[in-house]
Write a structure and sequence with these properties.
By secondary structure, this protein is α/β, with parallel strands linked by helices. It has eight helices and ten strands. The strands form two sheets. Strands 6-7-8-3-9-10 form a six-stranded mixed sheet, sandwiched between helices. It has a four-stranded antiparallel sheet with strand order 2-1-4-5, with helices on one face. It is globular and about 45 Å long.
Amino acid sequence: MQPLIEVRNLRYRYEDGTEALKGVDFRLDPGESVALLGANGSGKTTFAMHLNGLLGAEGGDGRGSVAVCGMPVEKRNLAAIRRKIGMVFQDSDSQLFMPTVLEDVAFGPLNLGLDPEAAAERARTALHRVGMDGAAARAPYHLSAGEKRRVAIAGILAMDPEILVLDEPTTFLDPPARRSLAELLHNLPQAKILVTHDISFARSICTRAVFFQNGAVAATGSIGDVVDQFGWGFTPAKNDSGR
């Protein structure tokens, strides 16, 4: 079985000299949901940003290899890779910028070359999948945090990706919104990577965890095994860069 994502010996150093990744190996198979755990500054988000070429695709101070659906993450492949892998960022406001929810969700399909009617239909289908049909005509800034997160996910689903990568998806969400989001993600067919500190949320969706520590993978296994080894509370690393 060809993995959806295969990473080998990934290294990355920021311009300020911070060595953020120190030889990371990783594999995501079809249908898997994997939690990336670890302290702030341990390398989780830096790693995730390599998966669709937000970092590392044009060379930079990095080594190793990243492949998505068999394609090396390189400049020449970025358009195709970004149709395969959808990223939902920690702050939903960074992904919502159009006057209405429907226009926001249709933005990606329009950029894929769909005509306006086809893009709007795909957007409506995505909004239905996340339970936000009734919000199509609303302004995104009028939505609650949980509703914004659902609309951001709808915008990614409208691109029909094979993989979802979510960075701290429960940030700003109250307990009912977290439960609702967990149910939504659990029912989506895409493979998933969750960058999270929320262990209970990770347990409800993921069957495997990868624990990052000081830019390297310190452990991989079931969420229970990783939590037993490293504890529930992850203490931020010294000189925490937030990366």
